[in-house]
Amino acid sequence: MGEASNDQAVMRFLAGILVGDLYSGTVAAVSRSEVSVALDGFAAYPLGAVGALDGSWRRRFTDVAVVGQRITAEVIAVDPHAGRVWLSMAATEHPELWAFLKRLRRGEILAGTVAAIERFGVFVALDEGPDHPVFPGVGFITYPELSWRRFEAASEVVQIGQRVSCEFLQFDTTNGEARLSLRATQPDPFPAFADRIAVGQTLRGRVTKLVSFGVFVQVADGVEGLVPLPELGSVPVAAPQYVLQTGDEISVIVTVVDRERRRLTLSGRRA
Hints:
mainly beta, CATH 2.40.50.140, 15 strands, elongated
């Protein structure tokens, strides 16, 4: 009965907590991966938790809190079944930035300037909103969201200092970033291509990439298809580089057009 009563008390307490609320409490324990917090109003045991990536965008996690410290953090998730309230101390560390990012809505178009190009993506300094305390810009574009077309380096698509308009995808609470898409503001070439081709049609294309399971062939501007390894030729080969190289021009036949997943499957053997 005692355990059931405790569970009910936890559920009642958690029912009054909403994502976005600011909650205060006392740090009960600190580990490498989590800060446990005894929330005000429920002192029985710590229900609050700050994950390692939600402690701070500037300081090391081990420097964020100590046992007995009073903190105020924003609620980012409530898990009634686990009896946990997930908190972000970074939200209250940089309230102006957090408030700006929370106001953004998916699909909104944001303008800015390319501030840095890294191997993992592109930072954009947005025209509106505060600077980021750590990164060159509040906006961030991952490589897949840069363009519908294949490219080897981000510098083929954008340059530092270039003005861009991007679609807002989501608020990355871990890094305090606005995840953006540049390609979402550009027409997708695949639907128009799919409208004018049919299964069984022969196309001419250029080999753009060799992979262990086949080759990718560009058959139109911004449209590539996969020729699976068994479909490379009439004679089986162990690896694509035995018969083709990047840049080779080949004829292929369309075998599958998957509009939903934007996938095109081709055959060189049947051509």
